[in-house]
From TrEMBL:
Protein name (record): Large ribosomal subunit protein uL30
One GO cellular component term noted in the UniProt record for this chain: cytosolic large ribosomal subunit
Gene3D superfamilies: Ribosomal protein L30, ferredoxin-like fold domain
One GO molecular-function entry: structural constituent of ribosome
Length: 59
């Protein structure tokens, strides 16, 4: 299965609880942390929800 690397670039401070929970679900909870995840529609939806705080490093 294909994987995707996601890097956290924004802070979860002053964000809603669901956005913080989404970051934790992606395996990100500190700045500049990188997580390698399976490329599934569910993960893509989570990335889209917090797209202002993450960037895709490799696709």
């Amino acid at each position: 299965m294909a994987t995707i690397k996601v890097k956290q670039t924004g802070s979860p401070i002053r964000r809603t609880k669901d956005q913080r929970a989404t970051l934790i679900g992606l395996g990100l909870n500190k700045m500049h942390r990188v997580a390698e995840l399976n490329d599934t529609p569910e993960v893509r939806g989570m990335i889209r929800k917090v797209q202002h705080m993450v960037e895709v490093v490799e696709g």
